[in-house]
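A reminder from the course coordinator: this example appears on the midterm review sheet, so study it carefully.

Given structure:
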């Protein structure tokens, strides 16, 4: 990226319209990730041949993984391209890709087509880093932290509204007469995908009108950058070096274990909730699952918007990291022990535990990693880049592992049955929590910090 190529004296400030567009681009990226969560399992079941139903969990994991894998693989390409031709065209190309491939996913009539559509949607949603680079181009050092918060807010809202839209608009012909005997009857998951495409078109029109280019011609890379292969090799080497760095590696390992455990849940949560009550599940519909994930998203927003500040001042980031891991792990382990007769009360409790734990962990781990990097003299960009790359790797492995474990154990006997994948989530969170106790004590956050001190 060329985020720092513009000196502060010539940084061009962004208009409110430009920042709004960046907010929408990021939010729609997350809507694109979250919109399929409530209905993905049902879509896979509809498209799976009758003689291959045992592989449903594996296909759910593959479709989840394909999106994150594509983002990971193509983020360096979009970043280097934006350094050469500017941020604006790259962001707009991403919105065009969203429009096309969201709709393609909704129209998929085979698992292979669904996989291709999901992968290509991830390819064109790999430009979050470009949005961050745009903010870096147009912000002074004093504005940077606040404006980067736009990305965080968009993440939270996107993950809240995405699953809600996906759940509420799934299978509309079964709920509203208007959609009977239409294409939405034969393709029951097309409507939420069309809505996501329309949101992309709306953002594209706003971007065309209100998003100026942030990178002046004289600041762009004039020569071709390194090949994709060299870029990926560089990412891997950088990540490996950070895993060997004292203290830095501990924080990154904790984050990786947490992310791995958390994303296993993405693949198996709905495999459990949609399972019939006779088999131990909850018999939830797509809309039910969308509402659950919306609850998780809303609780996460409240946690990061109102709780994280007071909690950080009271306990410090170092203490919050193992606490957050333990809280999230408890919620994940309790998921498959829900009783159908009190399903919503139980689901509300576990959703709150998961959301609060995740909402505390993410800013606490990022804050602690930043302080560790600065106190040890590491370049912040290199450290954060390594964390993001390794986190992406965990997000790729998590759903795939969850789907595979579900496929191998779901029909077995306790304890190796449908509980197993959630037990694995808990094990990962326990390991993250235990490892977090080895994090160093920083001077600004002494070990004898009074718990009641404000």
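Designed residues:
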């Amino acid at each position: 990226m060329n985020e720092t190529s513009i000196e502060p004296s010539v940084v061009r400030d962004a208009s409110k319209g430009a920042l709004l567009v960046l907010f929408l681009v990021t939010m729609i990226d997350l809507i694109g990730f979250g919109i399929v969560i409530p209905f993905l399992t049902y879509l896979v079941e509809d498209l799976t041949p009758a003689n291959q139903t045992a592989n449903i969990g594996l296909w759910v994991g593959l479709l989840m993984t394909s999106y994150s894998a594509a983002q990971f693989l193509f983020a360096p390409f979009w970043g280097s391209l934006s350094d050469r031709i500017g941020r604006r065209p790259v962001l707009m190309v991403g919105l065009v890709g969203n429009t096309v491939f969201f709709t393609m996913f909704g129209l998929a009539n085979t698992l292979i087509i669904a996989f291709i559509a999901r992968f290509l949607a991830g390819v064109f949603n790999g430009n979050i880093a470009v949005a961050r680079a745009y903010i870096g181009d147009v912000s002074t050092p004093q504005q940077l932290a606040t404006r980067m918060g736009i990305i965080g807010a968009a993440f939270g809202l996107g993950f809240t509204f995405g699953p809600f839209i996906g759940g509420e608009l799934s299978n509309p012909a079964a709920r509203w007469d208007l959609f009977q005997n239409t294409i939405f009857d034969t393709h029951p998951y097309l409507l939420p995908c069309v809505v996501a495409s329309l949101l992309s078109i709306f953002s594209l029109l706003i971007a065309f009108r209100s998003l100026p280019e942030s990178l002046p011609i004289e600041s762009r890379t004039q020569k071709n950058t390194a090949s994709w292969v060299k870029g990926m090799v560089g990412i891997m080497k950088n990540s490996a070096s950070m895993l060997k760095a004292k203290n830095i590696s501990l924080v990154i390992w904790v984050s990786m274990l947490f992310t791995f455990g958390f994303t296993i849940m993405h693949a198996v949560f709905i495999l459990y909730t949609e399972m019939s009550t006779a088999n131990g599940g909850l018999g939830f519909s797509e809309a039910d699952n969308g509402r659950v994930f919306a609850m998780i998203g809303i609780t996460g927003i409240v946690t990061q918007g109102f709780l994280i500040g007071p909690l950080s001042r009271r306990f410090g980031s170092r203490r919050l990291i193992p606490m957050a891991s333990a809280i999230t792990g408890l919620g994940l382990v309790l998921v498959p022990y829900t009783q159908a007769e009190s399903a919503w009360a139980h689901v509300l409790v576990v959703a709150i535990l998961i959301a609060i734990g995740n909402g505390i962990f993410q800013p606490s781990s990022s804050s602690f990693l930043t302080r560790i990097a600065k106190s040890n003299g590491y370049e912040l960009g290199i450290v954060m880049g390594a964390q993001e790359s390794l986190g992406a790797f965990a997000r790729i492995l998590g759903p795939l592992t969850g789907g595979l474990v579900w496929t191998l154990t779901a029909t077995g006997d306790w304890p190796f049955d449908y509980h197993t994948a959630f037990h694995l989530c808990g094990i990962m969170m326990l390991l993250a929590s235990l490892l977090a106790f080895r994090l160093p004590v920083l001077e600004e956050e002494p070990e004898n910090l009074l718990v009641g001190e404000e």
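The chain has 16 helices and no strands. The chain has two domains: 14-225, 239-437.
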